[in-house]
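Before going further, learn to read the protein records used in this course. The integers have meaning only within a learned vocabulary of local backbone shapes. To see the layout at work, look at the sequence and tokens printed below.
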Amino acid sequence: WMLYLDEPSRTLASYKYHLQSFTGLEVSQSTISRFFNKAFPIKGGLRQPNLVPYDKFKPENFLRARDYVNIISRIAPTRLHFGDEKLLKGEEFFCRKNRRNVLTGEVPPVLTSSDFRNTYVLNAFCGIDTETLPIYYRIHDGTNDADAFDFDVQNAIAIGHLSAGKVLVLDNASYHEKGDNKYLPDWLWRSFGIYVIFLPTRTPEWNVVEDVWLMLVRRMQYIPLTIVRQFQKDAVAHVANQILSEITHSNIMGFYAKKNLIQLVGE
């Protein structure tokens, strides 16, 4: 157990080697595997971890996180709208595992269109206010810069997704608050009564839109490639558009509840 605490990513071979070095006993890898999978109520198999940068734990970042929680806890969740961007890669969509042919031993190739090498930019804002759409989004194949972000903010305002009294929560991407968008928060407040709050450094897990991306990626994996191949061009963008258009207020409500933002609804 101490070996686990020292390095959770340790392989079974590493456990075997160090146990023999420390105790003189030779334990098989299968015995070690059974120990982690059967000796505790929760199975201890290898899983993909979250990667957490060291600077997340800087003292100044803790202070920003505390200030953010103090502010956000005073705002009714129905006023909150979260924004984020995602790179949508055709390669990610088509890279699925194929089952080996049990008769020939071959792994069949995946037939794709030229969309395999394309990359798209996906911008979105989401909220639980039933007076607006659950999510505003736009998929494009350009670059994601200050102009593109500003365009989406203005579009969201034009369709009523963002309006007076709303609070827009964003991460610290440079094109949200620097360069050409240096004065964007002030402009949104003075012109439309929309208040902008920035997430603490290194806290993507506090952004509700991240859960939208997770749902999108998971649902994309269930779309049969036979259907995807019906789109001769921009297949990934077409499928993503279909999935995002089906996201409901109930879905977004679940994401808010997951992040403990839902308890203030109605106050």
